[in-house]
Amino acid sequence: xxxxxxxxxxxxxxxxxxxxxxxxxxxxxxxxxxxxxxxSVLRYVKGLENFINASExxxxxxxxxxxxxxxxxxxxxxxVSPQVDDHTAALLSMLxxxxxxxxxxxxxxxxxxxxxxxxxxxKQHYIHAFMKDFEMDQEVFPLHLLEIQExxxxxxxxxxxxxxxxxxxxTERGITPIRIxxxxxxxxxxxxxKGEVNTLKMIDIIQVKQYGMKEAEREFDTKxxxxxxxxxSYFQTFKEENPVIKREYLRLPNGNYKIAVNMTExxxxxxxxxxxxxxxxxxxxxxxxxxxxxxKGLYMMYEESE
Length: 306
Description:
Number of strands: 14
Radius of gyration: 23 Å
Strand order of the largest sheet: 9-8-7-6-10
């Protein structure tokens, strides 16, 4: 089953990550992963090789250039790069993953990357060439990031004070923090409060404190349960990335999974669009109808503009 990639560039970044983390990557696997034929995969390979070589020439016009070789006896590609050692490849792979999520790097992250150069003997000029594609993130680094993550790890409830959309201070006590995510170029706290799952932009948080000494509930029901159908090929990834209500999954006749999750309406709409067609809303019916109406409205907007 192929995975979803928004465009050729995202597929090439993914290929770069695969080749940096695996000695061999089979052609058949790439065809299946991208849902493309051999010629398309070859174009991705050539595009990636050109990208790598351009960076190498920028650093040293006489440098030995990297190659992506196809080994017929293995039916696989391998990256042969005289410029990169294991530590540099590991750091480059991490940056590639970050690049697939955001065009921004915080000042703190940039300083951390630079701090690894001496301790791990990183080929810094090679990393610098890739980091040029990032922009400096002007948003303040979330002050309560570690504090909230510790409460999530310790499974405790918390109180949170934050600014609402009009600038008023709001305090909610006894919330259950579920997870922290990074989407739409911002950090968000997902939490359970009064029967609902809510999302709060972390830059708006003023203060957080532990609430009481009791453990937070590990499994809880929302007022309107959100039930999804997850494609079997995406199920493991989905479990790792999203807050599942219960570790009990119903296997459907078509091989997919029916599962209950703690997600906001906005989050599930975004997910269904981003990984289409691997996630489908089953319940509640008002979410299904709302999502269909939004998609119809989007379709009509582009139809009318033609």
